[in-house]
Design goal:
The protein is mainly beta. The chain folds into 2 domains: 14-90, Sandwich (Immunoglobulin-like); 98-270, Glucose Permease (Domain IIA) (Distorted Sandwich). The chain is 8% helix and 37% strand. It has helices at 116-129, 263-270, and strands spanning 14-15, 26-28, 36-40, 46-49, 52-54, 61-65, 73-80, 83-90, 98-101, 151-153, 158-161, 164-165, 172-174, 181-183, 188-197, 201-209, 212-222, 229-230, 235-239, 250-256, 259-261. Strands 10, 13, 14, 15, 16, 17, 18, 19, 20 and 21 form a 10-stranded antiparallel β-sheet that branches. A 4-stranded antiparallel β-sheet has the order 1-2-3-6. Strands 5-4-7-8 form a 4-stranded antiparallel β-sheet, with no helix packed on it. Strand 7 and strand 8 form a beta hairpin. The chain is globular and about 55 Å long. The relative contact order is 0.17. Bound molecules: zinc ion (ZN). Zinc ion binds next to loops. Residues 153, 169, 171, 173, 251 line the site of zinc ion.
């Protein structure tokens, strides 16, 4: 039970009580809105995050995420050999900016009635693509940026489009010309490759495993097919400006199942330099 844990986690930000009867529960990442947090426990453990059972890898790793408006405390329950331990962590506060975006096509701010059925269908496809996940574990090694370039939009900001307040922005926008190649931040399986969605233009969703997925939107071209395995660093798409956008950029979103994560926060704690070896 106390076997050493082989894991490349360098930054341990929270430790369980030292008198715990189970292996120490360790986390990488901070409990803050939009965060992806990776936990390390005994491979035999059952882990419940906010009361929900989460999958644990053969090395005892698990992942969870907090949404934009998370607050209060987070509860992690670990059960090993019927012995139960509960850990509570306060969620850090976070503030978001308001961003005015003028000049997007007006029909993407106030969509005409005849496109509502199309929008509903596309929303359902995106939801399905994130509903289940594979059991790849390579994303635990870290992510690379899909594209280098100026950041033109951030996670969580309250968006006002052409003067109309809309839902918050959940992506990290990286501005680059149409046609610029976009690389995969981590390996995964293509769950959705859709050329032209009403709000998001060319839309690609890749499942990295354990509920973690990347979504790229406003793409001008998608170079991979649904069901395909894609490697970290592989060219998968090209930047575009389709959907609700004022100019060409990559909008990179990340999810833990339905929960929307902040790619910038993920990169703060889990970035893998492009020169790092891909395998240990
Ligand atoms: Zn965006």
């Amino acid at each position: 039970m106390n076997k050493p844990v082989a894991v490349s986690i360098s930054l341990v930000l929270a430790l369980a009580l030292t008198n715990a009867p189970v292996n120490a529960l360790e986390f990488k990442g901070l409990w803050q809105p939009g965060a992806m947090v990776v936990g390390q426990t005994d491979p035999e453990a059952q882990v419940y995050f906010q009361g929900q059972l989460v999958a644990v890898t053969g090395e005892g790793q698990f992942v969870a995420g907090l949404g934009r408006d998370a607050s209060g405390t987070v509860q992690v329950k670990v059960v090993i050999d019927g012995e139960e331990q509960i850990f509570n962590y306060p969620v850090l506060a976070r503030e978001y900016q308001t961003q005015r975006v003028d000049g997007v096509p007006q029909n993407t701010v106030t969509p005409p009635k005849e496109v509502l059925a199309r929008i509903r269908k596309e929303t359902a496809l995106v939801g399905q693509a994130r509903a289940d996940s594979n059991s790849r574990t390579d994303f635990f090694r870290g992510f690379i940026r899909p594209l280098e370039g100026p950041i033109s939009g951030v996670y969580g900001s309250q968006r006002i489009y052409n003067g109309v307040p809309k839902r918050p922005h959940y992506g990290l926008d990286i501005a680059r010309p149409v046609g610029t190649l976009v690389q995969m931040p981590a390996a995964g399986i293509v769950k959705l490759a859709y050329d032209d969605m009403y709000y998001s233009g060319g839309t690609l969703i890749v499942d990295h495993g354990y509920g973690i997925s990347s979504t790229f939107i406003h793409l001008s071209e998608i170079l991979v097919e649904e069901g395909a395995y894609v490697e970290q660093g592989e060219d998968v798409a090209r930047v575009g400006a389709g959907g609700r956008a004022t100019g060409p950029h990559l909008d990179w979103r990340m999810n833990w199942f339905k929960v929307r994560l902040d790619p910038a926060l993920v990169m703060e704690f889990f970035s893998l330099s492009r020169t790092d070896p891909k395998s240990p």
